[in-house]
Amino acid sequence: MILVDTGPLVALFDPKDNQHQHCKTLLQTFNEPLISTTPVLTEAFHLLTPNSKGADALRNFIAKGGLNLWFLNKETMQTALQLMEIYHDRPMDLADASLVTAAQTLKISRIFTIDRNDFTIYRIRIGYQYKYFEVIS
After folding, report:
1. Do 37 and 98 touch, CB atoms closer than 8 A?
2. How far is it, in rounded angstroms, from Cα 70 to Cα 116?
3. What is the CATH number of the domain that holds 23?
């Protein structure tokens, strides 16, 4: 499974985005299911503008099973909020914190993102070990 950040979702569904073609080409190479979080989707739909062709295309992509969703619960929300405190010097937003929390919970280290700077810094805690993300960008 591959985690998906906001940037590629916006780029994939906004043909005017300067990363559109690159993200589209990368998407075609994936053989694993894609998964993201509701804070990431909130951010993506905001950036695509409600009722735009891009937002419609993203809705269709999700409805057809192109993207699985992982939801925060009370416990994982606490983890995400703690991560935001830990990485306060970056600063980490809720979308990024939700992805790191999902990675830890689901034991996934691959992430499709345009934001290499942050995701090469963030680490995933799995058991007693910390590991870096495998960034696909």
Report:
1. yes
2. 22
3. 3.40.50.1010
Instruction: Give Cα separations from 52 to 30, 42, 67 (angstroms).
Output: 26, 14, 19
pLDDT in tens, 56-66: 999 999 999 99
Question: pTM of this prediction?
Answer: 0.94
In terms of residue numbers, what domain contains 108? Answer: 6-136
AA letter at 2: I
Number of domains in the chain: 1
What lies within 8 Å, CB to CB, of 120 at 6+ separation is: 132, 133, 135
